[in-house]
Amino acid sequence: MLESYTIRDIRQLKALSHTVRVRILAALAEKPMTAKQLADLFGEEPAKTSYHVKQLLKVGLVELKFTRETQNGIVEKYYQAIAREFQTDPLLTTQPGGRSRLEPALVRELNQVQSDFLRAYRADREQVGADGQAGGPQDPADGSAVHHGLHRLRLNAGQREAFLRELRDLIARYEDAEGDYAFHFLAYPHPHQAGAPGPVTSARGHT
After folding, report:
1. What's the mean pLDDT in 152-156?
2. What is the SS3 string spanning 8-43?
3. Can you give the residue ranges of the HTH arsR-type domain (predicted)?
4. CATH fold of 2-90, please?
5. Long-range contacts of 46-55 (CB under 8 A, 24+ apart)
6. pLDDT tens for residues 71-128?
7. How far apart are CA 147 and CA 207, in angstroms?
């Protein structure tokens, strides 16, 4: 499996224009799974996830990792993403249909991040309760299991490169960990304009 893969083929971008396929690709970047396991994970019909996996396989974003025969003689096919992380080549937007496919895909992904953030926040609040006495991993700062944050950073060019380098190193240090507490990060640096919000990084965590 590659550490990172850049999408430069409009067919691959088109395949990822479906939200379910984005979620499937993210799951298969973590470990090999069957279409049935993906269906159970997302609450979908196996036939539906099988179709989406085949579409990702067709454009080369996932691969058949191995097969295993069950005691009943059924051959299970385990698929895996070709890389741990994916990014889109900005030049794809210059191809016919590139921008029209890229922007809706980004909007859907951001909407998913927002939904996940709110769901994790509410779940953690319900877990700790009003008195903060419920079990589960606790944040030493306030005794809760909640650790959500939104941070705006205003950096110069040198600080930006240093920040991104340190962030990549930090993520690489823990990316193979297999604990129960998951942190998700979203960062998008952009030039700061007077009167406009600065570059933003956000972090959220949930069990």
Report:
1. 80
2. CCHHHHHHCCCHHHHHHHHHHCCCCECHHHHHHHHC
3. 11-94
4. Arc Repressor Mutant, subunit A (1.10.10)
5. 48/20, 49/20, 49/24, 52/18, 52/20, 52/21, 52/24, 53/24, 53/79, 55/15, 55/18, 55/21
6. 888 899 999 999 988 877 766 656 565 555 556 666 556 556 656 666 666 666 666 5
7. 10
